[in-house]
Amino acid sequence: MQAPRSALESLRFDNRFVDALPADPLTVNAVRQVGNACYSRVTPRVAPDPRLVAYAREVAELVGLRPGECTSNEFLQVFAGNRILPGMDPHATCYGGHQFGNWAGQLGDGRAINLGEAVNGRGEHWTLQLKGAGLTPYSRTADGLAVLRSSVREFLCSEAMHHLGVPTTRALSLALTGDEVMRDILYDGHPAPEPGAVVCRVAPSFTRFGHFQMLAARGETELLRRFTDFTIESDFPDVAQRPPGPERYVDLFREVCRLTVEMVVQWMRVGFVHGVMNTDNMSILGLTIDYGPYGWLEDYDPDWTPNTTDAATRRYRFGHQPAVAQWNLLQLANAIYPIVGQAEPLEEALRDFATHYQAGHQAMMARKLGLTAFEPSVDQPLCTRLEEILRLTETDMTIFFRCLADVDIDGSDEAAMERIADAWYQPTQVAGDKRAQILAWLHSYIARARRDNPDRDARRSAMNAVNPKYVLRNYLAQLAIDKADAGDFSMVNELLQVLRRPYEEQPGQDDLAAKRPEWARHRPGCSMLSCSS
Ligand code: AMP
Ligand code: MG
Description:
By secondary structure, the protein is an alpha+beta fold. It has 17 helices and 13 strands. The chain is 41% helix and 13% strand. Strands 1, 3, 7, 8, 9, 10 and 11 form a 7-stranded antiparallel sheet that branches. Strands 2-4 form a two-stranded antiparallel ribbon. The longest helix is centred in the middle third of the chain and has 25 residues, at 246-270. The relative contact order is 0.11. The mean pLDDT is 97. Adenosine monophosphate (AMP) is lined by residues 107-111, 138-139, 142-145, 276, 280-281, 290, 292, 531.
């Protein structure tokens, strides 16, 4: 008699990507250039002594698992890379990309292994991907591994972003592998061992701009067409309704522009800085992907980049993200041009990006300010002035907007000033002319808010629904990492729990909404991140 299948063995897989697209004929796991193929089959590396650090029950449900199943040994073995379930077909995909503005050639999944596409009860496909499970043909000179530090950051931020309402890849699990992995965090010639870890990431697909770019760069136009048709059929059901042909590729491009606008607007809303917006890190679905040296704005500074590698030119600074997104879309347009055949409709879509971004950003700012609509003639100057106000003195962006919701718009400017004081890092600096400028802004804001919406409670709750109280502050992630490195996973799980409800007041958790402490100002991992992960 056959043994009853476990819950994990009952997961259903339908691996559209591997079934529809050509595989690399070589199966040896050696670094190489892979032409005329979209992926290479690989086997995850065995984790010698896996240990579960955390899992996200919501993601378990998405892929067709019950949360109770996530604490089993079988779950750990599967998501640390030690067991392949029936129906899985592990592979690493081939893509290229522009890194910091320069074409880098073939990159590919150097430490990501897609296990397969799980189909849940609603018929949705969710690709399960291990990050840090060992070498692939795309590992170049690196080791295919990930450390606990960067894996905690990826795991927590994916879930935090989702609960904030920002489009993102998800994270099912975070496990230690039992390996020690050497990393030179500061890139100063002092590598040290760190605990190895694997995150299981989950997304409808992990297709990047760089997948299209790689095929175009190799002149593999037929495969590019096939790959694009596959992407439309599997990831863009609405576009797939249109008749096949070049116009459908333009429709796809317009849709990618729209999704990318939406993603970046949401980043700007919550103060997220991606840090490495290379084209290989841009999802075709407009999902935030590849959580590396990202950071959260603490004091509002549009010129801030968390990435030490980016310090010289600040290409990926907060305020430059919309422009970089558009530049990346231009690279995608160039990549699909051979199958579109005309430049004009792609150029038009790129021009529309700017208009759509502006409209999306304005609507988002109106919501952050508690206004029912954005009136450009008044609200544009109000927002421009606000940017200046926020930069007059170090002002915590997250706390500022939460405080602003509490401002009594029937009260005095002085009372409003007191309400927002908690957002300042150096309150004593707020004197004289600075103080007068902030008061003047509050005066015009209050007048505008009063005219806009007579319902005070509605205004406050609308603002608190778009201005989070809890975000994954850089120093909080670092504290959770420090503890996890010492074998204590409690803070990882506590942050996961609190970040599930970022817009709600959570009694007893105010510490996790506090301003960055002074010690974190210059500590690596808190104020600046290297790409070492
Ligand atoms: P990233 O900067 O994380 O987007 O990575 C850029 C490229 O380097 C991608 O092809 C990654 O798969 C690859 N990569 C990054 N870290 C590693 C690693 N430890 N081992 C193998 N490949 C890596
Ligand atoms: Mg990447």
